[in-house]
Specification:
The complex is a heterodimer. Chain A is an alpha/beta fold. Chain A contains eight helices and 20 strands. In chain A, a hairpin with a 2-residue loop joins strand 9 and strand 10. The mean pLDDT of chain A is 97. In chain B, 35% of the residues lie in helices and 7% in strands. Classes of the chains: A alpha/beta, B mainly alpha. Bound molecules: flavin-adenine dinucleotide.
Chain lengths: 389, 97
Amino acid sequence: MKSRAEVVIIGGGVIGLSIAYHLGKLGVEDVVVLEKNYIGSGSTFRCASGIRAQFTDEANIKLQKYNIERWKRLSDELEHDINFKQSGYLFLATSEEEVEVFKKNIKLQNRLGVPTRLIGMDEAKEIVPPLNTEPFLAGAWNPEDGKASPFHVVYGFAKKAKEFGVEIYEYTPAVDILVEKGEIKGVKTEKGIIKTGIVVNAANAWAPVVNEMAGLKRDFIPIKPYKHQLVKTEPIAEGQIEPLTCPPAWNDSYVIQDGEDGGVICGTGLEKLTHLDDVQPTYDFMREVLKWATKIIPALKYVHVVRQWAGFYAKTPDSNPAIGKINYIDGFYIAAGFSGHGFMMAPGVGEAIAELIVKGKSKVPLDWDWYDPHRFERGELRSAAFQIG
Amino acid sequence: MSDKKNIIICRCNEVAQEEIEALIDQGVTDIEMIKRLLRIGMGPCQGRTCLPMVISILSRKTGKKPDEIKLPATRIPVRPVPAGVLVGEMESDGNEE
Ligand SMILES: Cc1cc2nc3c(=O)[nH]c(=O)nc-3n(C[C@H](O)[C@H](O)[C@H](O)COP(=O)(O)OP(=O)(O)OC[C@H]3O[C@@H](n4cnc5c(N)ncnc54)[C@H](O)[C@@H]3O)c2cc1C
């Protein structure tokens, strides 16, 4: 293991690896990623793979519009096929009031260059052939949203980062952060100390533990682990449920076909505040999610469920992440608390943090004030970002 | 030796021995990553037949002892079940009640 590095990133999920890749690309030579388990093992490998620009506030829409441009080029850039597909997101309205809300959101998205449209149920049925159209009045459809393989994204970022000289230490937890006179001095691991002046907290659900290592109050950025689960069915014919299809009024339930094997991933809003070791799937979730999924797509009744798993939404009080510099300690940065939509943000957030570290500013359209890690201490909350994948 | 292209290790997702060995040769030696990149053990059989075979290939190629390689977690349900049965709308033979 190295004894000195320019930057140490704590957390080898999609965010930490994207930051590492972008630092490498900018020519930073000595970058280390510490991952306590294997890369991707936190939330990233447990996510539903959805990528969207359909948000309801300017900051997230702008960032995600930019991110979709990044996703489109990412396989080429990483020289590894990450299986990005612009298969769209289809939100479905169950009431006139919801249709009005959709219209308002679409107007904002259109103004910012995101081509979402209100569509009728005939068109929705063409997009998702087995859809039960009867309960729904209209859909909000953005054909530019999509999905990618979390496995290949993590592998691709890690592989390219290593080519740039980044060292990734798996099964190597950070156990302490050395701070002297308000400056970062190093990170202690079980295998020794790495001296450094810059640490990035990319531990998402575990971020409060890492902040505490640096001597900060554990909850000055209040990120809490909420258990979220998914079930997956056996593969069905391609092209049946390609977009993420979600009636938000049905407890944020959604279905989406896996872009690689064609199984159907089913999620719902049933969540539980839990502790950081609890990724136990539960039968009450299985029943709840399938109740909704079979209402959205009745034919799913006949399809076999093969897997169920759980992971964390690392939630902040306003469901927006904390991204930026931590002002109390020189050289301490954070990108964490992604509240269920961090996979989709990874390329742009990694680029922005890397540029912030190297150049002090970034050309990524990321609104630093909006995501300011210190906003919670000031009692400021953003309008809640829509959480689901 | 027999043709490795034709030796299928994961029958659910049709992964051949050759693909697994190629990935190990590229330096991917963690079974958790091999499983996910090739989608072994994530189909209807849930890895019951294939993952032990992956362990023996890994152990042969990397020199790790088979019992040092931890089997990835099994996911519920242990056997595939129709969604309609799980929501209680169908009998377990797949007929509607
Ligand atoms: C069920 C579910 C569905 C989801 N669906 C979507 C979706 O469709 N689209 C989307 O965009 N997002 C989705 N998400 C959210 C997404 O998974 C996360 O926002 C994203 O993966 C966050 O990436 P990350 O790198 O910040 O976190 P993680 O992947 O959790 O990475 C943090 C890493 O830090 C490591 N770590 C912690 N402490 C230490 C330490 N002391 N030392 C070293 N390493 C440490 C952990 O082991 C972990 O690997 C979903 C999440 C869940 C649970």
